[in-house]
């Protein structure tokens, strides 16, 4: 029996988008579908990766991938705070990062992805913040 299909929610979308970026699948339509064109990313400790648009973010990721081909990250866990009434959500993501500081080096990272719900119930990620003290930005994204 078919049931009602719910639109994807921020925790699942966060993991999916991060996996797409980790796979360097920058043309994947989910990125444009679920990330705002004015997507912002800030990190504090890695200003090279700050971006004020989705286009700029993806270009920065392409450059990072070219400079550090063995760099990757995987989502370990998410914790979500959703305010359905205001259509906002924050997803805290813990990741395992490999080869950011050198081949074979692994460490943990923490990031926060901020979401807003658009008309029709679709969630869109508009901001990523890498937590200072957890290392550089791409320990999450």
Characteristics:
141 residues; alpha+beta; Nuclear Transport Factor 2, Chain: A; 5-stranded mixed β-sheet; 5 strands; globular; disordered C terminus
How would you portray this structure in words?
- The chain has 141 residues and is an alpha+beta fold.
- The protein has a single domain, classed as Nuclear Transport Factor 2, Chain: A (Roll).
- The chain has helices at 10-22, 29-34, 54-67; strands spanning 35-42, 72-83, 88-98, 106-117, 123-130.
- Strands 1-5-4-3-2 form a five-stranded mixed sheet.
- Residues 134-139 have low confidence and may be disordered.
CATH topology: Nuclear Transport Factor 2, Chain: A
Q: How many structural units, i.e. domains?
A: 1
What share of the residues lie within helices? 10-25%
Largest sheet: 5 strands, mixed
Put simply, the count of helices is 3
The radius of gyration over CA amounts to 15 Å
Uncertain runs are 134-139
Q: Give the neighbour order of strands across the main sheet.
A: 1-5-4-3-2
Q: Describe the global form.
A: globular
Terminal CA distance: 38 Å
CATH architecture: Roll
Number of strands: 5
Q: What is the CATH C level class, in words?
A: Alpha Beta
Q: What oligomeric state do these chains adopt? A: single chain
The amount of beta strand, in percent, is 35-45%
The H/E string reads HHEHEEEE
